[in-house]
Design a protein that fits this description.
single chain; 173 residues; alpha+beta; Lipocalin; 20% helix
Amino acid sequence: MKKIIRHICLFLSALVTGCIGVPENVKPVDNFDMRKYLGKWHEIARLDHSFERGLIKVTADYTLGEDGGIIVLNRGFDPRRKKWKEIEGKGYLVGDPSVGRLKVSFFGPFYGGYNIIELDRNDYQYALVCGPNKSYLWILARDPMIDREIVKRLVAGAASLGFDTGQLIYVEH
């Protein structure tokens, strides 16, 4: 019986850890400063998922929480329903705080990986972010418009890591 319980615990631990992991051959940025990352980001492009499907004018606001974590407010406009949709979550740095790796939750105790894999090191004006696997990818910027050459470079970098960049949706602002 103890052996069965131990196997169940190991399975559940692997399941939870896998959700906050980093995709194969992907490395989060180092020399990361969470305080500089806080604030509003505009979604420039994303891989499609049901929780954002059809939304335009998508933004993410990151603020410091009282517990030292991050409060995440994601917001987007649904043009079919003509209304804003938003959800608030929480995030925490994972491991070394100078590495751009977080776990984020919008649904209670269930966390997903949030890995910053490219970042404007000088001014934190753009970022390339992925989830725990290669089906999650976002290009974010401080402004709703970003230089096309930067976008091309970020897309090429993501493609070289194995992301299906041909499926990116470019967000209307």
